[in-house]
Structure formats: C-alpha cells, structure tokens
Design a protein that fits this description.
Layout: H1 2-13, H2 31-41, H3 65-75, H4 83-92
Helix pairs in contact: 1-3
Protein name: NAD dependent epimerase/dehydratase, putative
C-alpha cells in the first residue's frame, strides 16, 4: 500500500517523470503462496482453498526497477516492501 502511494506522489512531484507507468511489485508470487502467507501471519483468517498445482507466478515481462529507483530517490527506501511485510500491514488494518 505504501509503495503504491509513494510512487503516485513521486510521479506528481518529480519533473523527470512524464507519461511513464511503473510496476509496483517486488516479486512474482502465486495465489497459493498468498494463502500460505496469510495463514502463517494470521492463523485465524478465513482463506480460500489452494488452487490445483501447478500455479504459475506471473508478473509479466515489465521491469519493476524504475519504480524501485524512485522509492530510493525520494524516500531512501531500498526497493519495494517485501511480500510478507505488505501482507502483515494489510492484515493489521483488517482489510
């Protein structure tokens, strides 16, 4: 959540950003990994059952490095927030 908000803000204040799009995702993941991590972080959470294997990881072929560079430039953040930390923050907000 924070990374996306920061990228929106950077795009609005950084004069070098014109007509660009950014991939705001650290790593590829699949739904079964998401389900497992939610159960790990919040065992009482109700989650969907696993999808049949194999479940591909798909982030597409887009480069997420430009967005990570903006996070470093404007917030001295070393890349994107981890998958686990993002889930932890969302679960704490009871979304």
């Amino acid at each position: 959540m924070t990374d996306v908000a920061r990228l929106h803000l950077a795009a609005s204040i950084d004069a070098t950003i014109v007509g660009q799009r950014f991939i705001a995702a650290a790593d590829k993941f699949n739904w079964n990994e998401l389900i497992d991590e939610i159960q790990n972080l919040k065992p009482s959470a109700k989650v969907a059952p696993h999808f049949p294997e194999p479940v591909d990881k798909d982030l597409g072929e887009k480069d997420n490095a430009p967005g990570a560079a903006l996070l470093t430039k404007w917030w001295d953040q070393k890349g994107y927030t981890s998958f686990e930390q993002t889930l932890r923050e969302n679960l704490a907000a009871d979304l």
